[in-house]
Amino acid sequence: MILCCLLFNAVGCNLFAGVGAVTARAFPKHIEAAYKGLKGQTVAVMVWPERGVRIDNPYLQLDLAAGLQKTLQDIQATDKPDELKGTTFPFRADLVVKDQQDHPEIEAMPVTDIASRYNVSRLIYIEVTDFSTRSDASPELYRGSIVGNLKVIEIDPKGKAKEVFSKNDLRASYPKDSPKEGLPVGTDYKIYQGTLTAFIVELSHQLYTYEEEQ
Fold it and tell me: pTM of the prediction?
């Protein structure tokens, strides 16, 4: 009798563990958007890397801005999250970057003053404070890392802008399972692309409700 009970308990535990796994897949956990104010809005994306980051990575500004905008548009078209219903992006990322390059004086302006330059109702503003494709432990080892801040500026019909959302010290690394010391194989280009992609995912997850990876 005791043996039967032990067998039942063992089988029962495994059975219910299996049911739990199936339930988790059937009802995935949803992570709520940190900011939910893009619905039905006109949106521009702007990136400001720190001076040193910009000098070392001259295309990062455009690659990150264009990548985030395209990612949000792709999510809007495929997953159709409520937070992106009716959201439009009237300015290409390269036009925003060109305006920044043509008018370097706006870098010293408050972000709310910058936002009012564009005929949009929301400005997604990203500051990149650190970026690297090599390990801190050794310049011979590859490990991508990026740190930045995300802000959202709301602009009313009269052109008055205010910062309504801010999340600092957002981070991403690539490869995801890389040790902190880095890896001896890779290329700067591959690590650059992978790190930006990982950061774009982290940024976009702040702006729409998504399913947590199982």
Answer: 0.86
